[in-house]
Amino acid sequence: MNRGLDVLTWLVLLLMLSPIIWLVAASLQTDGQLSTGAYNLLEPTFTAFSRMWKTVDFERYMVNSLIICTAAALCATAFASCAGYALARFKFRGATGLSLGVVGTQLIPGSLFLLPVFMGFVWLKQNTPVALFDTHAGMILVYTAFFTPVAIYFMRYFFAAIPRDLEEAAMVDGCTRFGAFVKIVLPAAAPGLVATFVYAFLFAWDELLFVAALTQENAETIPIGIRNFIGNYQERTAQLMAAGVVSTLPVLIAFFATQRWLVKGITAGAVKG
Amino acid sequence: MPKRLAIVTSAIALMLAPAAIVACGDDSGDSAAKPKSNGQAAQGETLEKGVTLTLWTMPNSPQPKEDLQKMVAPFTAKTGVNADVQEVGWDVQFDRIRNAAVAGEGPDITQAGTTQVPFFAALGGFTDLSDRVEEIGGKGAYAEGIWNTTQVQGQDGTWAIPWFTEARSLYYRKDVLEKAGVDPATAFKDLDSFKATLQAIKDKVPDIKPFGAPGKKAYDLVHQVMPFVWDHGGAELNADATKSTINAPEAQQGVEFMADLITDGLFDKSQLERDGTQVENQFKGGRLAVWIGGPWVLGSVDRPEDDTWSDEARENVGVAPMPTGPSGKAYTFVGGSDLMVFKSSKHPAEAWALVKFLSEDQTQVDYAKLLGMFPARLDPQQQVGDSSENHKAFFEAIQTGRTYASIPQWGQIENAYKTRFGNILDSAAGVGSDYNAATVKSQLDAAAKEADGLLAQSAG
């Protein structure tokens, strides 16, 4: 019975990994092999990896993605920590309404915001010195705004799960409320912070619709750049696959580097000890 | 106030992309017809040194941005005007150019596909270049089909300058034709000999598929089918572009000619699963003996880094003009890209100077060679045409090439036709409805109805 389940697990795993296996395998072939189906998986070549940087200015897209996604994920996590803590700990007038409002924003399809945001950015550029259209700041603002509500929702439940005794003990020992928040609560909520950061980062890393409309040159990210491998007159499938591998790497690194925070809840046993 | 208006227009264009084509074709079309004062500075005006122009280009060549940046370096050296080349992918270029045109927030100059020009022109965000075109030889310096791509049918104005050109011709494998015992000189003379050649290849060279073309995934399926429609005397729309004629008997014969190649076993139906470039790679990889393609493939023969070519195919490429149809003419699709100057450009004189530079004969030859395309202007076109036998076939194709009605709604109509043509080819391949004359007719009727709807919306 157990062996049967093991086999099933491996099969499911293989099925789920097959697109990634194909991505890596195809990136190690030539365009010619891919287009005619004459694969030779035993003799991989790294030509596509070296050529992709020349064909498309991929470095620029990669740097833009790293800057925008990291900054947006940091901002969203920072704002959400403060708001989530307030909603989890304090009772104030309108707290329920605010919570519902935060969740409610998720009911509106994101694409509905595209038009007003585009109009606003263009208007600001043409009429004021505020540069948001086609800038890193503009995209960071958009992604932060998009992800903060969900992040608040996440963080609120993480904070709510942390026993009040911890921070009360810190305050008895002389910590201020803010000091207790920074020194005691935030470290205890580290898995939540990491999960929120990684989730926001991945969301921004994949996003295409907004970045396609709100940028022209300076702040274009990988989802825009990666499409340049396919033109009307030529398709560089192997390079596209290589670019896919390269753009997956930061995500994989982010995941594996934070894996233990993502899966381990450090609050367990904190008060018992 | 005008800026606010521009933003509101952009709002509509963004939200209602398909409807925008129709709406703008109507309202903005009028404004597009009015002469513009912008960019009408007199000849010989002085250019402001140190100015930086932004030029949008699409992935045309192996390294689009660097290639074009190098190409414009002499312009900067001569005039002191800098050019910042920015690459915009084909996937996003339509939206980007449209947004830039309606919002007034974009580059100075952009490349645009020839069939896109009327739509963009109707948005009202581009400079009418009519007063300047004489400086580069005007209409007479270009083949008629190519010059038509700069106009909007029924309106005054020249909204673009042709940049580079492509026309479709027949690619074939010389060695396969030899094995099949067919003389290349007469193999593709007319539609009958074309079919007979494919049959000979099928019978005598069984290890290669005679012919293939892409299906509905291809952006250029309509470019593949329409030459056969034109050959039979059909057309995509009537002369004044007010009604679709794609369901006329002549057009039906043209579409059926292509679909019959599938039922006769001459057309490799597995190619219908692929897009244009994938089928191209099948020819380059040695899986297809005959295929309809553009001049850029010829340009890639001598590029050793293009590893999609098999040795056999690379050494045996032949090009022939498209076959002559029952109408007595050999039609082909002629396309390529034009350059458009944004009305929002802060440096119209410098922008025009750059367009002029890109239209100089030597620049045209150099850039076209790099791309594997043809120059848009007649004189440099002739130069490239004379460079080899294969290039000559393309040169001839360009001179007799045909393009579609230059109306803002063409993009949407082409999409409607593409779906229906795809359905017909699928049915011939045994997918979907049974293939017979009634099926073809009903699909073409549906295509015509959709096209008429689009034309009527804009008229109303």
From TrEMBL, chain B:
<dbReference type="GO" id="GO:0042956">
    <property type="term" value="P:maltodextrin transmembrane transport"/>
</dbReference>
<keyword id="KW-0813">Transport</keyword>
<dbReference type="GO" id="GO:0055052">
    <property type="term" value="C:ATP-binding cassette (ABC) transporter complex, substrate-binding subunit-containing"/>
</dbReference>
<dbReference type="Pfam" id="PF01547">
    <property type="entry name" value="SBP_bac_1"/>
</dbReference>
<keyword id="KW-0762">Sugar transport</keyword>
<protein>
    <submittedName>
        <fullName>Multiple sugar transport system substrate-binding protein</fullName>
    </submittedName>
</protein>
<dbReference type="InterPro" id="IPR006059">
    <property type="entry name" value="SBP"/>
</dbReference>
<dbReference type="GO" id="GO:1901982">
    <property type="term" value="F:maltose binding"/>
</dbReference>
<feature type="signal peptide">
    <location>
        <begin position="1"/>
        <end position="23"/>
    </location>
</feature>
<keyword id="KW-0732">Signal</keyword>
<comment type="similarity">
    <text>Belongs to the bacterial solute-binding protein 1 family.</text>
</comment>
<dbReference type="GO" id="GO:0015768">
    <property type="term" value="P:maltose transport"/>
</dbReference>
